[in-house]
Design goal:
The structure is a homodimer. Chain A is globular. Chain A is built from six helices and twelve strands. Helices cover 26% and strands 31% of the residues of chain A. Chain A starts with a helix and ends with a helix. In chain A, the strands form three sheets. In chain A, strands 5-4-1-6-9-10-11-12 form an eight-stranded mixed β-sheet, sandwiched between helices. The first copy, chain A, has a two-stranded antiparallel ribbon with strand order 2-3. The first copy, chain A, is α/β, with parallel strands linked by helices. Chain A has helices spanning 2-10, 50-61, 89-99, 143-148, 166-176, 221-233; strands at residues 25-30, 35-36, 41-45, 65-70, 81-85, 104-107, 114-116, 132-139, 155-162, 181-186, 198-207, 210-220. Chains A and B meet through strand 3 and strand 8 of A and strand 3 and strand 8 of B. Strand 8 (132-139) of chain A pairs antiparallel with strand 8 (132-139) of chain B.
Chain lengths: 237, 237
């Protein structure tokens, strides 16, 4: 409203209390998943969870009812957010499905694409040979694509962390996973992305059969979360 | 000495300042190693580094000159300890060899047995098939066995984290890796071992062609570090 915009212009801090997500149910995934190989070993990735936690905090501050499904991270739960801790991709999908229905789903977690075909009950012993070993992996569920494929689906936002051909790969994911918006970021840039407090991103979405883009410059992940939500609220049904 | 023992009996806090490792050079490894699969994914394990850090702190408090070669952990460097941070097993071995010679080597790190045969420069893309993938792994160097195999070797202490047949596996490692002492612990017991503040252990060593054992009951890792050093100082050359 004009009143809200005037209020924000006069007092920037009041922007925090903009309640443009009031009453909306939001489910967000964050952090890495950890896929056990045996009782002590696992496959994982460098996701710190900071981006997903910043989004959860920003959604809650704007009035949303937020469930944050989180992989193992070293972060405090944002105020007003309901957090569900999980380890593996399969556990994360189950927790997301238990939190549905919702109006907005943001899949920000760096879900491991693969898990071990079989998890050893006891610690794997090295053989006598010094040659090596072969680890058989099976595909994990694609959580954001699974949510987007439901008949009663929320507005679905995915993330694409790439090290090359950013927009090609992200545009492909947007179509293939039937997402409403994808946030693409280049994790090969020093000081941005994984583990960092800062990030840059390109938003990609489909409008009238064309892929549209909006670049968001390098900034703290908290500010980037606000910029992403500013875009989102204009497009939520 | 009698004087030291009387002093300890009269003032237990003075035990901390027992300088029975004064002037000794000690190298300790701690924490997990992290083996990159590509720029974002890795193989690792649940080691918290607490046991190795407790040993480093205890050695330094007893007067030793300590180099702590540490994998990625969320722990503060103990006072008086020189810390070298590494990620992979190969980096850890190089850092250990750079810190030699020493009189006591304690290999407490949970070194990954395997690393990827080739590390992808860019993030691996999933194929179109939904079947799975095969990860080719090669054996990592065995750091404690490498140190123990040197012609001018320190007193070598290894750790064995097992989930079954604890003493058989640990006794086998003692002989095969030519260690002077092995600290065996059962990581399948809830509340002990990986990530926990407490641990129990069995010390195994060879004496007159027989394997001798000493059980150390469940206790805080700081106390366990002291118990291990109390045993060690009686056997250092």
């Amino acid at each position: 409203t004009i009143f809200t915009r005037l209020q924000q212009a006069l007092d920037p801090a009041a922007a925090i209390s903009t309640q443009d997500l009031a009453g909306r149910r939001v489910v967000i995934t964050a952090g890495p998943t950890r896929e056990a190989l045996d009782p002590v070993r696992y496959l994982s990735n460098h996701s710190s969870g900071k981006m997903g936690y910043a989004l959860a905090a920003a959604c809650a501050a704007r009035g949303a009812q937020v469930t944050l499904v989180s992989g193992p991270v070293a972060l405090a739960t944002p105020p007003g957010v309901a957090r569900v801790d999980v380890l593996s991709a399969c556990e994360m999908l189950a927790a997301v499905e238990a939190a549905l229905p919702c109006e907005l789903f943001i899949g920000c977690a760096a879900v491991a694409d693969y898990r071990a075909a079989s998890v050893a009950e006891h610690k794997l012993k090295k053989g006598d040979d010094t040659s090596g070993m072969t680890l058989e992996l099976v595909r994990n569920p694609d959580i954001v694509a699974t949510v987007a494929a439901r008949s009663e689906r929320p507005f679905c936002v995915g993330f694409a962390a790439e090290t090359q051909a950013l927009e090609t790969h992200a545009g492909d994911k947007l179509s293939r996973k039937r997402l409403d918006l994808i946030v693409a970021n280049d994790v090969s840039q020093a000081g941005l992305g994984f583990g960092s407090d800062d990030n840059a991103a390109t938003l990609l979405w489909r409008e009238a059969d064309a892929v549209r883009r909006q670049a968001l410059p390098p900034q703290p992940k908290t500010a980037l979360a606000t910029a992403i939500l500013d875009h989102l609220v204009t497009r939520l049904p």
